[in-house]
Amino acid sequence: MNPLRAQLSADRTPAPATVVIFGASGDLTKRKLVPALYNLMLERHLSRIAIVGASRSTLSDDAFRQRLEEGVDAYSRRRPIDRSLWDSMAPSIHYQPVDFADPAMFRELKTRLEAIEKEHNLPGNRLFYLSTPPSVFAPIIRNLGQAGLVNPGEDPFARVVIEKPFGTDLASAQSLNHQVHQVLEERQIYRIDHYLGKETVQNLLVFRYANSIFEPMWNNKYVRSVQITGAETLGVEQRGSYFEKAGILRDMVQNHLFQVLCLAAMEPPASFDADAVRDEKTKVLKALRPVTGRDVDDFVLRGQYTKGSVLGRDVAGYREEANVDPESRTETYVALKLGIDNWRWAGVPFYLRSAKRMPKKVTEIAVHFRPAPHRLFGDARMAHLEGNVLAIRIQPDEGITLTLGSKVPGQAIEIAPVSMEFRYASSFGVEAPEAYERLLLDALNGEPTLFTRGDEVEASWRFITPIHEAWAESETAPFPYEAGSWGPPEAEALLTDGMMWRKP
Ligand SMILES: NC(=O)c1ccc[n+]([C@@H]2O[C@H](COP(=O)([O-])OP(=O)(O)OC[C@H]3O[C@@H](n4cnc5c(N)ncnc54)[C@H](OP(=O)(O)O)[C@@H]3O)[C@@H](O)[C@H]2O)c1
């Protein structure tokens, strides 16, 4: 189907297919992927599928079904589990042990898939989902190719969803792209960033392009600056050894926050076609003014949490966490001042920040508009107004708030900020689907708009890698900030024009 028609159509039921999950004994499969497939089934978005799990562990079909049932029971958006639906799904769930380094096991997988598809009368459409550590992405794809499992035809189709992270720097992302392209065509590759599956992130596109009032103001003539925040209350939890190597710039900014930045800043695409949208997103990344060498300290600020209190609970500092070096220089807070060198955004700073152990979990975009050109009511009365702010909350409590200046009732002209609110939950009264539901359905439908293209990933790493290189050479350590605070006080100095970081 034409991708535009398919995306806009309410009936998006894809052709029957087999979803093959590599990393099937892992956490993501149990917590997100299978509950998402179950909810799609429950809401009748899927007609017929088989789920085939593959990983090193030895599991019987029954043991695998049991594990997934527990996952659906515990983590599904819609609970309790619908017994009759699960009983009808369970017979088409299977497990095949596969060592990802062993080509013979992929040939066995192929034989098993053919048998399963025959048993369930499925046409051979296959969606392979790589829910594994990134170190095995390339071997899995190579072995899929060698086993003849990913032929480029569309009927039946073979598509591959690749989890994050896609590379850890520019060279590794380029190398992974190269290895993947030796086996797959770009249109078969679905690099997932689950932020793009979130309703409010997609609403950014609708909000900008389905309303005529915002777009005329969406430029440097009216916008003073933009702040994008991705704040978590959690620390590194059980993932200390992973996080030590990653840091928040890799873990959150290169992927999630840059995706949000692209949707907020891109030019209107000519259509909602996947490549038209992704071309415009990539142009934003390519227009980012590079920050390299000595400039890094002027445009990027890193921090690391010390012990403190979050949501009323005392928590340890980052260096005291399990599997973290007591002298670690890994950043758990990062703030960036970005410039987008194009006609629309010249001179408008984009401030991005992401951190762990913040006082609140919140992801939002705040567009700060310029103040009124003439201070009709006098400087003193208008001084405390920061100008109109349009805040788009991506999570939690999804919605949009517009801050306006209003006259305080009374005899004098006194101005105070008031807000106009739109809240998803109260306006629509229905629960939004989970990001993984939307993205799995898109991948099964062959709609890659909300997945990241190879050149897009490389463009984001091209910007990020020099920052890591400068940090590696630097003698300085991240600025400490107390867990439960909004980050190091030094971060305020990154903002110019009298702006301050929001405390959403
Ligand atoms: N968990 C999340 O919320 C989340 C969110 C976003 C992205 N991700 C990404 O999703 C991926 C999976 O995450 P996860 O949390 O599910 O990881 P996990 O719990 O550690 O599971 C990893 C899976 O990969 C398998 N595996 C690892 N090395 C293998 C090898 N050499 N050969 C065969 N199987 C191998 C493991 O199987 P065996 O144990 O049977 O060997 C296991 O099933 C990662 O890339 C992660 O970055 C996860």
Describe the protein in words.
The chain is an alpha/beta fold. The protein folds into two domains: 3-163, 3-Layer(aba) Sandwich (Rossmann fold), CATH 3.40.50; 198-427 and 453-494, Dihydrodipicolinate Reductase, domain 2 (2-Layer Sandwich), CATH 3.30.360. The protein is 35% helix and 21% strand. The chain is built from 15 helices and 17 strands. It has helices at residues 3-8, 27-42, 61-75, 83-89, 103-119, 137-146, 170-181, 199-209, 240-265, 274-287, 296-299, 379-382, 424-428, 435-445, 454-473, and strands at 17-22, 49-55, 93-97, 126-130, 158-162, 189-191, 223-231, 300-306, 308-310, 313-315, 333-339, 349-355, 362-369, 389-395, 399-407, 415-423, 479-482. The strands form three sheets. Strands 16-15-14-13-7-12-11-8-17 form a nine-stranded mixed sheet. Strands 3-2-1-4-5-6 form a six-stranded parallel sheet, sandwiched between helices. It has a two-stranded antiparallel ribbon with strand order 9-10. Strand 4, helix 6 and strand 5 form a beta-alpha-beta unit. Helix 2 packs across helix 3. The two termini are 42 Å apart. The model is unreliable at 1-6 (pLDDT under 50).
